[in-house]
Structure formats: structure tokens, C-alpha cells
Amino acid sequence: MQTPAVTNDNQDGFFRMITVYTFSRNLAFLLIIILLAGCARAIDGLPIVYQPELRQGTLFTQENVAQLEPGMNERQVRFLLGPATIEDPFIDDRWDYVYQLEPRSTKAEPVTKRLTVYFDQGALIGAEGEYIEPGHPLYR
User: Fold this and answer.
1) Where is the Outer membrane protein assembly factor BamE domain (predicted)?
2) Which residue range(s) make up the domain with 18?
3) What are the E-state strand segments in the chain?
4) Do residues 32 and 61 both lie within one domain?
5) Residues 27 and 68 in one domain
6) Cβ pair 124, 77 in contact under 8 A
7) Is the distance from CB of 72 to CB of 123 less than 8 angstroms?
């Protein structure tokens, strides 16, 4: 019994079949990936994506604000509260402190604190905003 001779025609057909099979498999894989990517419309809600919280501004605490007294100079206020978030170049006697915290990886609510302090000839005369209640010596 003789084995059939392998001809070039048989080899070409075999390699062509492998090439078509590989191309079809890769095309199917690519289509599946594209379809699955289209289904992921809420990527922000995925727990695998870490998003750090955003902290902006100058953090001031109730203890710092409680230490403010009328007549303090600008240097003393800066020592207690830190640098002002907004110093208006046109109004030298007003400093605005804004602190914002946006926890993006949890369901917690964003936090915004505002405080405005007023000076007259370099001396603290008033404040308004967070932790300044009516009856406070600096209430405005």
C-alpha cells in the first residue's frame, strides 16, 4: 500500500485553511471586545476604579476660627487660618477662605466651607461664613 504523495496543492489548501481560521478567530475576538466595551456605560460606578478625593482651598477649623479676635493684624490671622484662598487685588481689606472636599470614591456628600474676613487698616474688624454665628464678636 502506498501513501498518497503530498503535493503543493494540498499544502496550499491546508495553509489557506489555517489562515482563514486564524483570521476568523481574531475577528470574532475583536468584535466581542467591541461589543462588551459598548455595554460598559457606567465605568464610574465600577468598584475597581479608584478615584482619589479632591481637596481644594485652605482648610480651616472651628478651633482656628474661635481664636480670631477683633483687632488682630493680618499676620496673626494668616498664622491661624493659613493663606487666603482668594485675595482680591482690588480690595485689600477682604480675604476669602474656601475649602472644598469632594469624595469621589465613596457616596459621601461633598463638603464646602466658606469664610470671609475683613480688615480695616490692617486690623481684623469682622468675619462672616462658616463657624461665625450671631453673637460672635466678629459677626457681620
Assistant:
1) 57-125
2) 8-41
3) 54-57, 86-87, 94-102, 111-120, 123-129
4) no
5) no
6) yes
7) yes
Rounded CA-CA distance 56/63 in Å is 20
Residue 8 pLDDT exceeds 60 = no
Q: Is there a single domain that holds both residue 29 and residue 70?
A: no
Q: Structural domain tally of the chain?
A: 2
Specify if 92 maps to a domain: yes
The rounded distance, in Å, linking the Cα atoms of 62 and 86 is 20
CA dihedral for 127, 128, 132, 137, sign (positive or negative): positive
Write out pLDDT tens, residues 31-68.
888 877 776 666 655 566 677 888 999 889 999 999 99
**Entry pTM:** 0.62
